[in-house]
Task: structure prediction
Amino acid sequence: MSGAREPAIVAAGVHKSFDERVVLDGVDLTVAEGTIFALLGPNGAGKTTMIRILSTLIEPDAGRVRVADHDVVDDPDEVRAAIGVTGQFSALDELLTGMDNLRLMAALNHIGRSTGKERVGELLDRFGLADAAHKPVSTYSGGMRRRLDLAMTLVGTPRVIFLDEPTTGLDPVSRRRMWDSIRELVAGGVTIFLTTQYLDEADELADQIAVLDRGRIVAEGTSDELKRRIPGGHVRLQLATPSALRAAGELLEGAWRDEEQLRIQVPTDGTVASLRHLLGQLDDAAIEVEHLSIHTPDLDDVFFAVTGQPTEEARALP
Amino acid sequence: MTAMTYTVSDSATMTRRNLRRLLRYPSMTVLLVGMPIVFLLLFVYVFGGQLSHGLAATLAGGHSGRAGYLNYVTPGILLLAVAAAVQGTAIVVAMDMTGGIIDRFRTMAIARSAVLTGHVLASLIQTLASLVIVIAVAIALGFRPTAGVIAWLGAIGVLGLFSFALIWLATALGLAAKSVETASNTPMFLTLLVFLGSGFVPAATMPTGLQQFARYQPFTPVTETLRGLLTGTPIGTNAIAAIAWSIGLVLVFYCWAIHLYRHPKPR
Result:
């Protein structure tokens, strides 16, 4: 094929409201073929709604979306033939065995009987489910269910795979294992679009990250580009009096004040030198600090860096 | 392959899936088939002796006493079996709709209708199998149908059509339910309707208000038609009423089910 290939996913001006509530407010994004794209955002940012639109489950109120060279509204069946979706809630048949579930997918993907059998066996081995193949899914652990879910998505050899919070609720070992599986897939040439609440997950996996906040993309770039904007997390200072808070706020660059809690949040690169400098500044100004804590970068820091405010959730927490 | 062959093969796949679920999760099936059999034993051996006293010999297929009541009550028990079986339909449909798997099906390039077709066909097969078991038990206990081949075929037709209607009704209830628990409760009124008709005692023995109700609800004409075909009691206009009710119910609940399926509640 000559010329530039169409990106695997293109969304332009996507709007979606449920009743009066605006969930997506003009989302644009582009995902190149054969890459991993992470949509990063807190709960309620609109990540799942975006996945549901991209995977033809719901239609956008406005905007255009093309996935695997087809429009999701005009040619949903063409899109469906090219995608695989693993949702946030396990899409498994609880009453059937792991093998039954995979065979069902083979039949629904219209793969011939012998090819289907081969493929099912291969996937059971690859996801470490061969021993449990004949047990009902209701007896599976959380990690096994996620693996079976992903294996079911792969039966049809999709070109584009959507993963909605693939590791939420998994223990660290299962999480690593899921990451490995995801990386293997991209090595095979497929495009992956995943949502996550975890910065480290996006950092670990994604070629391109977009930060979604209240229905809008507030930042986009590679992991490095984003991290450059969040040099090293932040230092949180607990102050004794409102006047100390005000003084510290004026003194420290880029600080975010919480007037009610008498707390201040200062970006830092996490080095000892920068900490020493910060403490020196406070000492010189004779500002008394009751308590200090250092936070390594997480989603809240991305939000802090991008929007100048922590996530709504973080603000709500004491 | 064309769209048509996909529709057929996907529907067959979904039907097989649902039948396999019945085998993998037999406790529900056993419960739903067991319920009418327990009622059969209960009504014949506990209440049957007493109930048979007020029963005209013409209604008892020419038998008297307990055997007569067994002949009278079997059509009602068969409808109880249908009501129990479709409760299973509502449950499995709701399990699909409230779980994540329906979203998987909706994001696959499969015939849209296959999900519901699979449920309805599998339920029909299950219901007919359950009816065969209940009839076999009734015959073992002494039920002696007088029906010839034509009458049997008619009885099978009436039962099949009415089952089909109640399966669509249960499918719609399963789709409308917000939880599996709700779906397992809402079809229970069907069981009650068997009692509030002529399933267990002639409607004529009931108080006037109840008699009126029994006359105008679908289970009564279906019971009377079955009883007539199997044991030779008069059928009259009941056959037409039974068929009209069944077709009407299919149309209404088919449309409702399709509507619910096409317009899922956002979540």
User: Anything to note?
Assistant: Chain A has two domains: 9-228, 234-296. The radius of gyration of chain A is 23 Å.
